[in-house]
DNA sequence: CGTATTTCTTAACTTAAGTGAACGAGTTAT
DNA sequence: ATAACTCGTTCACTTAAGTTAAGAAATACG
């Protein structure tokens, strides 16, 4: 049926020695993965470039962020969050792809993909209740993983971050509403064609059956729909 | 086809004299409506009760908000925002109901309803581009209407508001994702039954054809679906 | 390397939504 | 008062998605 995935985390070029930990209730190990410094620097720049679109940071502020040791490399298939579990972690995708999915009647329903430059604060972090859904890695990925405490700390130290978070959330909310509107007002075929325009990469890098539920249909329907589109041309 | 609606605004018990204005490109009038002080006080309390869930305000801060003269009463049918127009206005519904709708192929597609205690910052305020959609009043309503400048001013004066806006946006974003997920993973019939549970008032106060597009289907399908549900029982 | 598993596609059939049209009830306009 | 219009419902028909099943293609794994 559904393959069980092994959580597997790694600090990215941390100055702190890498210690394998046993942590989750299910006893799955969090293991460090192999990384290199140039990769790490690329990721730092990616993060700071993103932030600079919202606020400009001093060196002190950049160092305060780096001191939080947020970078993690995560293997394809890793489950970051499980249904029924509590979590305080928010994610920012520097490289790779993660997804939200539900298991309903023994079937996976993928509802969202997060790729490069996408930020995700799971609902359970906000509601402080057990999670309704799973989050897992579609590809080997590099993420920042930050918990609520870190954010409270950094926000109170640097009001700039508070502002950035507000602007970012407002933007994402308005965009989510637009995506939702587009979904409601179009047919599965239109949705697929639209995705082909707006996120062509997703169709390449993501399995069809995950794409299908993302489009609100069954895998068989997506297959048929694609065939229909091809013969039209 | 589609009835043209007359914009019609009114300050609520304002200290400023009520001046009818001619303002929109279409030359529609913005007229004051009849209100009374007790109503006004109720609305103030509703607003401050809402805010108090996020931050606690001093009298000074409350007065600073009141000084912005945000309250407006709006008649049923009033168009608050038109497709193609730019706007800086955000809304908070104290009483009544407003909706977002698109006009596609000469047909209205309603994608969202905002009722008591709902906040709405239109996409065009964030994107600073012309609006993709309309916003209009489903019922006679009382709103707060605030523009970006006001928010910048009040946020810089009272960092508390910045924090409140951040928390609120984060909450709304997480909730919107959940609503979107529910929509994607259920059939029109399930969506209707779910709405019956979660927002039973909406089904009473909103016309069926608006509900239909909100549920992502045609009015005929909603009618049929309701009949189907009835005969099942 | 070959076997097992997962993933994708195809097909036949069922079910439900889209379409176009018609009707009655209620509302608005003249 | 009547004509025009909106709104919700119903019906017949079309189209597309859900379901079940089977097989091919790709991938994972021993």
What does this entry look like structurally?
The structure is a homodimer of 233-residue chains. Chain A is built from 9 helices and 11 strands. The radius of gyration of chain A is 19 Å and the shape is globular. In chain A, helix 8 (208-214) packs across helix 9. In chain A, 45% of the residues lie in helices and 22% in strands. Chain A is of the alpha+beta class. The model of chain A is unreliable at 1-7 and 14-34 (pLDDT under 50). A 5-stranded antiparallel beta sheet of chain A has the order 1-4-11-6-9. Chains A and B meet through strand 7, strand 8, helix 3 and helix 5 of A and strand 7, strand 8, helix 3 and helix 5 of B. Chain A binds a DNA duplex (30 and 30 nucleotides) through helix 9.
Keywords:
disordered N terminus; 22% strand; alpha+beta; four-stranded antiparallel sheet; homodimer; five-stranded antiparallel sheet
Rg measurement of chain A, Å: 19 Å
Distance between the termini of chain A: 37 Å
What is the number of helical segments of chain A per DSSP (H or I, 4+ residues)?
9
Q: Main β-sheet of chain A: number of strands, strand sense, barrel status?
A: 5 strands, antiparallel
Order of helices and strands of chain A: EEEHHEEEEEEHEEHHHHHH
**Average pLDDT number of chain A:** 86
Structural classification of chain A: alpha+beta
Greatest chain-chain contact: A-B, 38 and 38 residues
3D shape of chain A: globular
Strand order of the largest sheet of chain A: 1-4-11-6-9
Proportion in helices of chain A: 40-55%
Could you give the count of β-strands of chain A? 11
Oligomer: homodimer
**Poorly predicted residue ranges of chain A:** 1-7, 14-34
**Proportion of strand residues of chain A:** 15-25%
